[in-house]
Design a protein that fits this description.
Elements: H1 4-11, H2 15-23, H3 30-43, H4 49-56, E1 61-66, H5 74-87, E2 91-96, H6 103-116, E3 121-124, H7 131-140, E4 144-147, E5 158-159, H8 163-176, E6 182-186, H9 192-207, E7 217-219, H10 224-238, E8 244-247, H11 250-262, E9 272-277, E10 290-293, H12 296-312, E11 325-328, E12 353-355
Parallel strand pairs: 1-2, 1-3, 3-4, 4-5, 6-7, 6-8, 8-9, 9-10, 11-12
Antiparallel strand pairs: 10-11
């Protein structure tokens, strides 16, 4: 197996020059760079990760904390981070919440695990942490990026969509199709992204002077089980009094559609349903799920590049805007207040809208 000394000998340069060329640190002439790269290719040289870590005093890996590894939301997020890091010849160490502690304690313990593993930087996706937790963390561990929420004082390190606007898009979609009697399945209370999307949704109805009664707003937990439980509660206490349902994520929307069907309610003929996130299964349901697309993978890639630039001196482009977008499919139909004998409200009036169907 070729060594860095073999590369230096074939290229006719010193070992220090080879090291500078391969690490991208320090000056080297164009001729020296060309000779080094030719020697690397000729010898099929593979730099030692351990040697590079010792020379740079970095391990070449970033940590990421997410509450769970399962589900249709965190899997794509983790995959996006892994691909972004591997594309830059870096690696990922992941931690999730586990144990009997409350979600905040689980997140703090998971992040401490990553710090103890000497990750060069850490990405965090957690709605359980207080803002003060993240501010304090960044003071002690500066190479930090936050995914899917805004933190006061850390705006430059936050990569998220406008969830308030995402909720408004869902409300505008139902209003445009003539729905005024709506029900809501929310996510966990005190989850910042959930609170934002519910605020936007309900405020859009308030602006039209349409109230959503408390008995038609129930809490879920972003899981299929939570969606089934919340939909069961809605059917018991508000059955027949809503023509449309907004679920704060796709998993709960899917569970609600299944339960409504078992109770003889057709979607969208009897009840329209709209989800949130645009996870992969949404387009393959019957009916296919109308939902608000959140570009979480784009946000995760941008956060990864932000840390790659900050930790390793790279100059990767970092996006900052991740607008929600409504994806029209088949689960939303006309409500009792749809315009009769005329055209519906044009889709173009609902900013951030896309049409999509999957056969």
């Amino acid at each position: 197996m070729a060594t860095i000394k073999d590369v230096a000998r074939l290229a006719g340069v010193g070992v220090g020059t080879v090291s500078r060329v391969l690490n991208g640190n320090g000056a080297a002439s164009a001729d020296a760079i060309a000779r080094v790269m030719t020697a690397v290719e000729t010898l099929d040289f593979r730099p030692s990760g351990i040697a590079r870590a010792l020379s740079l005093r970095m391990l070449g890996m970033l940590g990421i904390y997410v509450p769970a590894f399962h589900g249709t939301f965190y899997g794509p997020l983790l995959q996006a981070v892994d691909e972004a890091l591997r594309g830059a010849d870096r690696h990922m160490v992941a931690a999730s919440g586990c144990g009997q502690a409350d979600p905040r304690r689980q997140a703090l313990d998971g992040i401490d695990f990553l710090i103890q593993r000497e990750c060069d930087g850490i990405l965090v996706e957690s709605q359980a942490l207080e803002q003060r937790d993240l501010v304090a963390l960044q003071r002690t561990f500066p190479k930090l990026a936050v995914i899917n929420r805004h933190v006061d004082g850390l705006a430059s390190r936050c990569f998220t969509s406008d969830h308030d606007f995402g909720g408004r898009l869902a409300a505008r979609a139902l209003l445009a199709r003539g729905h005024r009697d709506v029900a809501v399945i929310g996510g966990p209370r005190r989850a910042f992204d959930n609170e934002a999307r519910l605020h936007g949704f309900l405020d859009e109805f308030r602006r039209r002077r349409i109230a959503v009664p408390a008995e038609r707003i129930v809490d879920g937990d972003f899981s299929f089980e939570g969606g089934h439980r919340a939909a069961t509660q809605l059917i018991k206490q508000a059955a027949g009094r809503f023509t449309a349902l907004f679920a704060a994520n796709d998993q709960m929307a899917m569970a609600a559609i299944a339960l409504l069907g078992r109770h003889g309610a057709r979607v969208p003929q009897d009840v329209s349903v709209i989800g949130y996130d645009d996870t992969e299964p949404a387009g393959y349901l019957s009916p296919a799920l109308t939902t608000v697309r959140i570009p979480i993978k784009d946000a995760a890639v941008a956060a990864s590049r932000f840390l790659l630039n900050g930790c390793y001196g790279m100059k990767l482009p970092v996006a900052r805007d991740f607008p929600p977008q409504l994806v029209w499919r088949d689960s939303v139909g006309d409500g009792p207040h749809a315009r009769k004998g005329g055209a519906r409200q044009p889709v173009r009036d609902l900013s951030g809208v896309a049409r999509q169907s999957r056969a």
